């Protein structure tokens, strides 16, 4: 076994590519501008099922290439007269896999491998995102998620090991694990959540601090601030280091991540970001975050729902992810559009004052529910379209060296909890969207999933960017995605 | 991990509780030099006196919640940080917002703290009066290091909740070099604020303590750590100067000292807010599902009831469920069907013959546990069992599940009839504990309004008959309140929930439960005075110790 954990693919690429003349170590340290472009991994989650009374707004009208998009996937098309969530012409770049399934426990038996308990809401999350069976209805994952597996392989030398963002800033009623899609292990081997950043403004400041603004006045002001930041972080980190020495093992472990992030922050402030160029440009400062506001459902004064202009927030966060890839600030990003069992008010999007979750329970029409799915798909598609058009320094486009996937909380079909045959509380007929051409991915088709596990598609994406093996209890990818 | 000694002591406690010798069982704990900073934790820990009632709770290092951070910044800087805290990761509710098992370090926290600190510094520096108050001295020049160090020492003690050592002050004092370029004394002041507001010791409640000899994982907290525990318990904020002064005099080294400090804290308005917040988190109405116009009025109504019973009247806490009047204005009185006080501001109005009584009649309480578009007898019953009686209702075997709360899609069928499935077969065992409790409240909708028929189903008359199985039958919130008290578990559950809130942990060990029993005995002896319960809890010897989890 290699002691250095160099993924085999990276090694082979280094030997076989144009970068052969570079010193071996320099190549492996991630001095990537001259070498083959780094691989990127992008996963997006939407807290929705795929149908209300029926499923067929999500499933394309034909299998194979040139599939016909219906209402919920309208943003993938060349034109979109069905809803207002964009038309990104991505049918040749995105594969749709439909008809996937997460198995569930029957009776009092334990769930099968990578399966779920039969009670709905949140039981699909752990198997979907970590490939591990859920033993309760908690959304907390019992295993490391794909983005963190990817980061361990792809992120050597990157300014950010991975980015975790969530578009919906508040759960409006409850939150906790229902607002987390990324998990990793601490140094004691315990699986812990990666709390996402939800503020576009904070995300912008974090990503682009240190880049020089074009306005000379602003540049001088920022330079002074940066000098102050260096002194401040020096003290904050120094205090943290001294405190760490005095803590017992248990307390040190608890604060481990905090200490680590302080060190990372100090390091980022101390080192210059990559230069801006033709593709890497500091985006416009998004300004203050849109306010978070709550109201109640039109049909029930008893239910609080909320909106914080997630549409705008999603676009800004998408732009930041795109530019973080273009500037090579990171190689791995996760974007949680909405919470599991989402209480976001969809009125500004589809004109009905109800929450995303209730759209699956007949609070509005099937068409409007499909439009809320389309809105979420549109936010992901917007990033994919930008990556498709952004040239790589070494030729080709960002998307060529990327594996990107969008997954959804549920599908549509049998609900073992209620016994209903056609229910939104179901892990039958789940679907995923896959984009990118890294590692032999062949996008642009509608694939009938044949009850494959949706995490298999994630495994395919991981393998495509050079991360070997499976995800949790899901050992294999989905061969149809690469053949 | 619980060390053997502590577990054994827990047993002693249980026995002591049985013979009713709780009061006066605090032994004298040697006073400890209250030293913070680098030297603070170096004294040997004082073991608890033999035979005393010590059950030191397991505790991890707790991060401030959004609410605690807001209070802390307000107290430190004099202004509410407002929406600046929106970047702070949302706290999970379990139902309390301070469950440390749900708190994890993250880049989100570190970057949010940096952002919050920057904005707080800007706000302070652009407010000359506030700046003057916080800095505390008038600088003679931008390089006035005497004034600067005085500020660091004063502000640092409040921010980090302990005195700063000389070398610590010097590290911050070096910021004054940045004033040369700016020509402004307050450049470095802003830097100190930014540095301290993102310091680990501000964001987390660090409890180093000193190890107790011959014990595993048992630590005696120093005076400043006890001060921090106390002020976050009773105020949800950092200690004020007066409490820090008490700590500096080692005034919190004995249970009596802590008790006297706690009594002062309980006299402040902030303690009322804290106790009100505890109840609103506990019963789930902190984030109510009520429309805004009603919500604000009802939050005031519930807070006023708790204030009146606990603080103004110093009456039995159980009266929260028994008071025959409520604090309402004309709008709310009309909503509830009460006599109007002829006032647009709230007044105390008797419930009269409305069948209402106490907190269970409030829209806040009744808004919780709704499902679909109406009340759910199951959810209400579950909430009352779990939250008010501290009973666990297991999730059903999925193979049994039928969702009867969903309104009928075809012919009208009344709710009680729809629930028939819950009363049959394997469902009945658990549902008989929940549904009959909820059905007794069915005359009260999800906003607490009285009704006689189901919404949109005028043919469905509501019987309103309920039962707390094993205790008795009832109709409406007044009778339910009386039954909960009669059942005898309500006050113990209140103590248990207070203990969860105080210790920031939902899961309780056997030792925790013994401790809750001990506190419950005391609570009952003091005729259920909630302020006495808090005093009693804080002045247990255990309050000054920590078992590392």
Short description:
The complex is a heterodimer of chains A (483) and B (549). Helix content of chain A is 31%, strand content 12%.
Describe the secondary structure blueprint for this structure.
The complex is a heterodimer of chains A (483) and B (549).
Chain A: H1 8-16, H2 24-28, E1 40-46, E2 64-65, E3 94-100, H3 125-130, H4 146-154, E4 163-166, E5 183-185, E6 191-193, H5 200-208, H6 216-246, H7 249-270, E7 293-296, E8 304-307, H8 310-326, E9 332-336, H9 347-350, H10 356-359, H11 366-389, E10 402-408, E11 430-435, E12 445-448, H12 454-464
Parallel strand pairs in A: 1-9, 1-10, 3-12, 4-9
Antiparallel strand pairs in A: 2-12, 3-11, 5-6, 7-8, 10-11
Chain B: H1 4-18, E1 58-59, E2 62-63, H2 66-77, H3 107-125, H4 128-135, H5 145-160, H6 166-173, H7 178-182, H8 185-197, H9 200-203, E3 204-205, E4 210-211, E5 218-220, H10 223-234, H11 241-248, H12 255-266, H13 269-282, H14 292-312, E6 325-328, H15 330-336, E7 347-350, H16 363-367, E8 370-371, E9 374-375, H17 377-388, H18 415-418, H19 428-439, E10 453-454, E11 457-461, E12 466-468, E13 472-474, H20 476-487, H21 490-503, H22 510-525, H23 530-538, E14 545-548
Parallel strand pairs in B: 1-14
Antiparallel strand pairs in B: 2-3, 4-5, 5-14, 6-7, 8-9, 10-11, 12-13
Question: How is this structure best described in words?
Answer:
The complex is a heterodimer of chains A (483) and B (549). Chain A is α/β, with parallel strands linked by helices. Helices cover 31% and strands 12% of the residues of chain A. Chain A has 12 helices and 12 strands. In chain A, strand 5 (183-185) and strand 6 form a beta hairpin. In chain A, helix 5 (200-208) runs parallel beside helix 8 (310-326). Chain A is globular and about 60 Å long. Chain B is built from 23 helices and 14 strands. Chain B has helices at 4-18, 66-77, 107-125, 128-135, 145-160, 166-173, 178-182, 185-197, 200-203, 223-234, 241-248, 255-266, 269-282, 292-312, 330-336, 363-367, 377-388, 415-418, 428-439, 476-487, 490-503, 510-525, 530-538, and strands at 58-59, 62-63, 204-205, 210-211, 218-220, 325-328, 347-350, 370-371, 374-375, 453-454, 457-461, 466-468, 472-474, 545-548. Chain B is α+β, with helices and mostly antiparallel strands and 549 residues long. Residues 1-44 of chain B have low confidence and may be disordered. A 4-stranded mixed beta sheet of chain B has the order 1-14-5-4, with no helix packed on it. In chain B, helix 17 (377-388) crosses helix 19 (428-439). At the A-B interface, helix 5, helix 6, helix 7 and strand 7 of A face helix 3, helix 6, helix 7, helix 8 and helix 9 of B.
């Amino acid at each position: 076994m290699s002691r250095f954990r160099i993924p085999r693919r990276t090694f082979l690429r280094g030997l076989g590519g144009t970068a052969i003349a570079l010193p071996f170590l320099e190549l492996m340290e991630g001095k990537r501008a001259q070498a083959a472009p780094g691989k990127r991994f992008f996963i997006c989650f939407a807290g929705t099922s795929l149908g209300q009374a029926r499923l067929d707004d999500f499933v394309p009208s034909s299998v194979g290439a040139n599939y016909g998009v219906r209402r919920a996937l309208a943003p993938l098309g060349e034109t979109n007269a069905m809803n207002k969530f964009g038309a990104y012409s991505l049918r040749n770049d995105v594969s749709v896999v439909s008809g996937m399934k997460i198995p569930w426990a029957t009776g009092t038996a334990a769930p099968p491998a990578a399966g779920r308990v039969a009670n709905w809401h949140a039981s699909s999350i752990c198997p979907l995102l970590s490939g591990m069976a859920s033993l309760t209805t908690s959304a907390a994952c019992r295993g490391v998620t794909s983005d963190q597996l990817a980061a361990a392989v792809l992120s050597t030398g990157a300014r950010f090991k991975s980015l975790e963002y969530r578009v919906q800033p508040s759960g409006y009623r409850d939150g906790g694990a229902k607002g987390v899609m990324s998990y990793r292990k601490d140094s004691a081997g315990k699986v812990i959540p990666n709390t996402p950043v939800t503020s576009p403004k904070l995300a912008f400041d974090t990503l682009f601090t240190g880049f020089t603004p074009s306005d000379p006045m602003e540049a001088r002001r920022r330079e002074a601030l940066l000098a102050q930041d260096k002194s401040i972080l020096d003290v904050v980190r120094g205090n943290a280091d001294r405190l760490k020495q005095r803590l017992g093992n248990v307390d040190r472990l608890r604060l481990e991540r905090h200490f680590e992030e302080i060190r990372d922050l100090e390091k980022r402030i101390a080192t210059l970001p990559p230069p801006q160029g033709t593709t890497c440009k500091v985006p416009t400062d998004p300004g203050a975050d849109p306010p978070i506001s709550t109201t109640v459902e039109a049909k029930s004064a008893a239910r609080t729902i909320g909106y914080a202009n997630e549409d705008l927030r999603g676009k800004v966060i998408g732009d930041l992810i795109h530019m973080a890839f273009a500037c090579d600030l990171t190689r791995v990003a996760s974007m949680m559009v909405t919470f599991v069992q989402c209480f976001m008010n969809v009125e500004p999007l589809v004109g009905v004052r109800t929450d995303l979750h209730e759209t699956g329970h007949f609070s509005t029409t099937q068409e409007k529910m499909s439009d809320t799915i389309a809105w979420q798909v549109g936010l992901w598609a917007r990033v994919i379209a930008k990556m498709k058009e952004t040239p790589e320094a070494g030729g080709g486009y960002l998307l060529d060296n990327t594996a990107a996937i969008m997954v959804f909380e549920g599908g549509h079909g049998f609900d073992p909890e209620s016994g209903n045959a056609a229910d939104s509380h179901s892990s039958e007929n789940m679907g995923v969207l896959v984009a990118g051409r890294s590692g032999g991915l062949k996008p642009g088709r509608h694939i009938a999933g044949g009850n494959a596990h949706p995490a298999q598609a994630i495994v395919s994406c991981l393998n495509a960017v050079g991360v070997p093996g499976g995800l949790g209890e899901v050992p294999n990818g989905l061969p149809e995605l690469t053949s | 991990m619980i060390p053997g000694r502590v577990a054994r002591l827990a047993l002693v406690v249980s026995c002591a509780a049985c013979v009713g010798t709780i009061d006066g069982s605090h032994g004298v704990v040697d006073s400890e030099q209250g030293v913070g900073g680098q030297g603070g934790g170096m004294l040997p820990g004082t073991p608890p006196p033999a035979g005393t009632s010590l059950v030191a709770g397991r505790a991890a290092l707790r991060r401030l919640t959004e609410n605690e951070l807001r209070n802390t910044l307000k107290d430190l800087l004099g202004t509410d940080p407002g929406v600046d805290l929106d970047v702070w990761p949302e706290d999970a509710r379990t139902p309390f917002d301070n469950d440390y098992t749900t708190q994890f370090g993250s880049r989100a926290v570190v970057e949010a703290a940096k952002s919050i600190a920057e904005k707080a510094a800007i706000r302070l520096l652009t407010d000359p009066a506030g700046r003057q108050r916080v800095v505390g001295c008038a600088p003679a020049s931008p390089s006035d290091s005497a004034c600067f160090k005085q500020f660091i020492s004063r502000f640092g003690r409040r921010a980090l909740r302990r005195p700063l050592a000389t070398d610590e002050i010097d590290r911050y004092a070096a910021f004054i070099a940045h004033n040369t370029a700016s020509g402004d004394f307050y450049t470095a002041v802003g830097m100190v604020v930014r540095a301290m507001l993102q310091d680990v010791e501000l964001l987390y409640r660090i409890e180093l303590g000193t190890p107790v000899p011959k014990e595993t994982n048992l630590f005696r907290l120093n005076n400043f750590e006890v001060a921090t525990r106390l002020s976050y318990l009773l105020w949800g904020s950092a200690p004020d100067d007066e409490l820090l002064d008490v700590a500096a005099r080692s005034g919190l080294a004995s249970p009596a000292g802590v008790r006297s400090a706690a009594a002062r804290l309980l006299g402040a308005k902030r303690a009322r807010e804290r106790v009100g917040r505890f109840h609103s988190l506990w019963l789930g109405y902190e984030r109510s599902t009520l429309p805004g116009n009603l919500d604000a009025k009802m939050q005031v109504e519930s807070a006023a009831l708790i204030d009146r019973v606990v603080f103004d009247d110093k009456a039995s806490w159980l009266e929260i469920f028994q008071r025959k009047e409520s604090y309402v204005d004309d709008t709310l009185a009309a909503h509830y069907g009460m006599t109007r006080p002829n006032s647009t501001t709230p007044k105390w109005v008797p419930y009269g013959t409305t069948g209402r009584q106490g907190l269970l009649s409030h829209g806040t309480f009744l808004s919780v546990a709704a499902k679909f578009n109406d009340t759910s007898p199951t959810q209400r019953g579950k909430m009352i069992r779990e939250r008010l009686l501290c009973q666990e209702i297991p999730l059903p075997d999925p193979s049994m599940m039928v969702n009867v709360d969903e309104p009928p899609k075809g012919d009208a069928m009344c709710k009680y009839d729809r629930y028939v499935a819950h009363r049959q077969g394997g469902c009945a065992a658990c549902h008989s504990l929940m549904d009959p409790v909820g059905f007794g409240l069915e005359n009260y909708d999800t906003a607490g309004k009285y009704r006689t028929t189901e919404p949109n189903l005028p043919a469905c008359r509501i019987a309103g008959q309920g039962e707390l199985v094993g205790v008795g039958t009832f109709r409406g919130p007044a009778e339910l309140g009386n039954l909960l008290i009669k059942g005898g578990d309500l006050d113990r559950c209140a103590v248990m929930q207070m203990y969860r809130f105080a210790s920031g942990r939902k899961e309780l060990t056997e030792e925790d439960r013994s401790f809750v029993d001990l506190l419950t005995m005391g609570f009952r002896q003091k005729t259920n005075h909630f302020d006495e319960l808090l005093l009693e809890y804080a002045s247990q010897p255990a309050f000054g110790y920590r078992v590392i989890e």
